[in-house]
Design brief:
mainly alpha, P1 Nuclease, 3-stranded mixed β-sheet, 3 strands, globular, binds 2-acetamido-2-deoxy-beta-D-glucopyranose, binds zinc ion
């Protein structure tokens, strides 16, 4: 152990934005949207499992896994999955492992893990003590958000855009951070009066309006599975190639053209993750239902 201030300095260094997930706003929006689509059973279960600090609001704790990820080091690799450079596709067997090669240690593996914990244990008081279902709920809600952020399923070689230095208007940052935070921040300032609630409302309106014909397909998992993160990861890497990496080479300056063409992608991903989180929780907590996990 070095002197305390080295630990302190490292801590702040690690807290530099850009290595976090969808920023706080993104996760808050996703969980707020999800709340609106929960069934009565799911809402009751969520309220029962939430920590007191949430005051009954799931959205209040959806960034919790980002707050503890440097303290609970084992959870770091669970926020993303890296895919082979320039392949633009994702495969669970090939890609879902950490840098040490341990299988299932990636965002999709974590989604299966925490869904399994909740489905097997919620209605079973013996098993319930085996897992911390409060943590399982907070991890699951956060990771369903993360897997929808295109660059959380980015290339291995650039760490999902983390090593691609760009300018966002005048500010020096990296491409991953642009997608976690900067696009949402600029949208808030430019279009939503710096009010997150207004942005969430606009997305919710679109879900019931422009996207209403798509919602059922967003919610559905094939073969009646409780949870299906693999297609979400495939969508993400495809969007990463089509929109995130495109025209964002190292050293480039991203401004209006990039911002205005990518914002609709970000808003749709926030909508999809909210709807899918709710659909997943509804299946997990369907009373008496026995559904396959996988
Ligand atoms: C599954 O959840 C447990 C409890 O949080 C955790 O220790 C383990 O690392 C998780 N594994 C994966 C692959 O998410
Ligand atoms: C479950 O996890 C929460 C959040 O980390 C913690 O506050 C709580 O004490 C844990 N519960 C048990 C029984 O360990
Ligand atoms: C899904 O579940 C429904 C109702 O339980 C059942 O009728 C249907 O056959 C199932 N479909 C598949 C593909 O398993
Ligand atoms: C609403 O949907 C339209 C059409 O898909 C899209 O162009 C627009 O960006 C969306 N707005 C929001 C706030 O999601
Ligand atoms: Zn995350």
């Amino acid at each position: 152990m070095g002197p305390w201030w080295i630990g302190r300095a490292l801590f702040f260094l690690l807290m530099v934005p850009g290595i976090l997930a969808w920023g706080k706003e993104g996760h808050y929006a996703i969980c707020k949207i999800a709340e609106g689509y929960l069934t009565e059973d799911a809402l009751a279960a969520v309220k029962r499992l939430l920590p007191d600090s949430a005051e009954g609001d799931l959205a209040a704790v959806c960034s919790w896994p980002d707050e503890i990820r440097f303290h609970l080091r084992w959870s770091g690799p669970l926020h993303y999955v890296d895919t082979p450079d320039f392949k633009c596709n994702y495969k669970y067997c090939r890609d879902c492992h950490d840098t040490a090669g341990r299988k299932d240690r990636c965002v999709t593996g974590a989604i299966y893990n925490y869904t399994m914990q909740l489905t097997t244990s919620y209605h079973d008081s013996v098993l319930e003590s085996k897992y911390n279902l409060t943590e399982a709920l907070m991890f699951l809600s956060h990771f369903i958000g993360d897997v929808h952020q295109p660059l959380h399923v980015g290339f291995l070689g650039d760490e999902g855009g983390n090593t691609i230095t760009v300018r966002w208007y005048h500010r020096k940052t990296n491409l991953h951070h642009v997608w976690d935070t900067m696009i949402i921040d600029s949208a808030l300032k430019t279009f939503y009066n710096s009010d997150l609630a207004t942005m969430i409302l606009a997305i919710q309106r679109n879900i019931t309006d422009d996207w209403s014909n798509d919602v059922l397909s967003w919610e559905t998992c094939s073969s009646n599975h409780t949870v299906c993160p693999d297609p979400y990861a495939s969508e993400s890497i495809s969007l990463a190639c089509k929109f995130a990496y495109k025209n964002a080479t190292p050293g480039s300056t991203l401004s209006d053209d990039y911002f205005l063409s990518r914002l609709p992608v970000v808003e749709k991903r926030l909508a999809q993750s909210g709807v899918r989180l709710a659909a997943t929780l509804n299946r997990v907590f369907a009373s008496g239902a026995k559904i396959a996990v996988g």
